[in-house]
Amino acid sequence: MEQKDPIAEARRYMENAKTILKEKAIKDGDFYKDSKYVKMAGHTMWTGCLLALDYALKIPARKDGRKDIADYKTAATKADKKLLSYVVSGYNTMHLSMSYDGEKTVKLAQISFDTMKFIINWCETRTKKK
């Protein structure tokens, strides 16, 4: 089975999230109409970020096989303080506010996409240096 490029896959997740927001959540002025799809888009965005971060930072799984946000914060702190700020912001906006809370503000989604782009680009640059 062919191994997928994690950076390309993360970008695919970003495009999928954009499609979910556009076609399912449906923008209505400054807000989206359906929080169910905002939650889905937020989860998709955050998962894409984690794919890129796992690839670039080589974060080991814990004994139970799961990783925690603390693992990503620790790895980001060691790699680049600016990345840490984006990881924390992404966790708060994509994962907590969008995925869990279903926050329907369009500006929050836009900020989340900007954060996602930074994280993916940082990871791509980091992995090309190796």
Which helices and strands occur, and which strands form pairs?
Elements: H1 6-25, E1 27-28, E2 31-32, H2 35-57, H3 69-79, H4 81-100, H5 106-128
Antiparallel strand pairs: 1-2
Description:
The protein has a single domain, classed as Nucleotidyltransferases  domain 2 (Four Helix Bundle (Hemerythrin (Met), subunit A)). It is built from five helices and two strands. It has helices spanning 6-25, 35-57, 69-79, 81-100, 106-128; strands at residues 27-28, 31-32. The two termini are 24 Å apart.
The order of strands across the largest sheet is 1-2
What is the CATH class name? Mainly Alpha
Gross morphology is: globular
Count the beta strands.
2
Instruction: Give the structural class.
Output: mainly alpha
Q: Mind describing the biggest β-sheet?
A: 2 strands, antiparallel
Number of domains: 1
CATH superfamily placement:
Nucleotidyltransferases  domain 2
Instruction: Give the CA-CA distance, first to last residue.
Output: 24 Å
What CATH architecture label applies?
Answer: Up-down Bundle
List key phrases describing it:
130 residues, mainly alpha, Four Helix Bundle (Hemerythrin (Met), subunit A), two-stranded antiparallel ribbon
What can be said about this structure in brief?
The chain has 130 residues and is mainly α. The chain contains five helices and two strands. The protein has one domain: Four Helix Bundle (Hemerythrin (Met), subunit A).
